[in-house]
Amino acid sequence: MGLNPQAEELNEQIKRVNKVAYELLSKRGKGIFFPKKGILSQTAEAKGKKINATIGIALDDDGSPMRLDSIGNRVSLAPDFFKYAPSFGKQELRKKWKDMIYEKNPSLQGKDVSLPIVTSGLTHGLSTVAYLFVDEGDRIIIPDLFWGNYRLIFVNSYGAVLDTFEMFRNGGFNISGLREKLLASSGKKIVLLNFPNNPTGYTIREDEAREIIRVIKEAAETNKILVVIDDAYFGLVYREGIYRQSLFSELAGLHENVLAIKVDGATKEDYVWGFRVGFITYGIKNGKELYPALESKTAGAIRGTISNASNLSQSLLYEAYSSGSYMEEKKSKYEILKSRFEEVVKILSEHKEYEEEFSSLPFNSGYFMCIKLKNVDAEKIRQTLLNKYNTGVIAMGDILRIAFSSVRGELIPSLFENIYKACKNG
User: Fold this and answer.
1) Is 58 contained in some domain?
2) Is residue 29 part of a domain?
3) Same domain, residue pair 125 and 251
4) Residues 91 and 175 both lie in one domain
5) d(CA 114, CA 129)
6) Distance between CA atoms of 380 and 207, rounded to whole angstroms?
7) What is the DSSP letter of 108?
8) Range 59-79 burial, b when 16+ CB lie within 10 A, else e
């Protein structure tokens, strides 16, 4: 059975503009499309008619979406938020987020990127990328310290292999490890990078960012490269000399053989974890004519899985981004997180005795930091902290991940003292 003609049409559009982008698509990606015909197109054609029996929602007699007062009375937005959002996402929010990406990433000026597609959070964004670009057996190049959910998304759901390299070397990001993986063979390459990194709380320095870009450009001479940038914690950088933009800003126009995908969202950037609003944005050199087809395929994947992301969440966020107080409110929350980060740095510098039991991995940003235990098992210490010290952390091999983002500043000294005592005395 051949592909749907609408999928074939999109494939031809992509091949005509950039054959590499087509070759990076998975089998699912090549087969998906956003339906221009059928129910959606017929509904669009009937819009504005006196009698419209096409829309799959219930309307009150006044034409507004039917709703329960016990819910509607608690929301100050117009009743339209009860309707479905488009599978692409609300147009005004997509445009606003794109404008914000350019504002946050000055290096993007003069480069064309796609209009972001709205997803139901970062996890769904990454899963949609996997749907479109990952076939069973594909290897994903990634540092060995990564968010555990990547396994469920890429390995368990899509059959990929996580091809890891040691994240740190000589106290910084292991660029030679990345280069070795990229140049080991030629063909399709998928790279997944996440800064600020979960779990380590590390963001690359400015010089490291330049080297990563150089290595990817070098590899692009003999490879077709998909670089997925997980920007879940974007903006939460607490030290000078750290790269404050997204790597996407340099990758978007780097090379015809490099398709960059920025997966980001409001979840951590705007402290709305339960809203489940993320975005997928594409960038490639000379890609302006390519983006509509990629956006259509992305919306098709969303249409075929969750239909669309929450209209209410999207509407609330758009209202917030249009508010005159948004930036000031966001800065105040950033300062709280930065103060907690600085408290962690202070505690570790003042208590050299802690180095008998553990050492910190490099960290400078985000929600987390990690300590590597020297003498005891991490899971054993985690259990001791729970049962004896009323303290919870995450154990990963010989590492403890500490979310300072969720600990009040005055409790941070006790947190590390408890870890030290658990390691020293049990």
Assistant:
1) no
2) yes
3) yes
4) yes
5) 15
6) 39
7) G
8) eeeeeebeeeeeeeeeeeeee
Amino acid at 408: R
Token reading at 119: 């997803």
Q: Given 304, 321, 338, which residue is the final one in a domain?
A: 321
Task: Quote the pLDDT of residue 64.
Answer: 84
| Residue 115: DSSP 8-state | P
Write the Ramachandran bin of 116: left for phi over 0, alpha for psi from -120 to 50, otherwise beta.
beta
Length reported for the chain: 426
Q: What is the C-alpha separation between 189 and 352, in angstroms, rounded?
A: 43
CB 358 within 8 A of CB 388: no
- pLDDT level of residue 40 (50, 70, 90 thresholds): confident
Q: Show the tokens assigned to 184.
A: 């080991």
H helices within 309-374, ranges in order?
311-321, 326-350
Do 333 and 415 belong together in one domain? yes
pTM listed for this prediction = 0.94
Domain span holding position 392: 326-425
The answer to whether position 71 is within a domain reads no
- The CATH number linked to 377 is 3.90.1150.10
Domain termination residue (choose one: 297, 321, 345): 321
Q: Helix 412-425 crosses helix 326-350 at what angle (to 10 degrees)?
A: 30
Q: Is residue 140 within 8 Å of 190, Cβ to Cβ?
A: yes
Q: What is the pLDDT of residues 338-381, one digit of tens each?
A: 999 999 999 999 999 999 999 999 999 999 999 999 999 999 99
Give the tens place of pLDDT for each residue, 246-274: 999 999 999 999 999 999 999 999 999 99
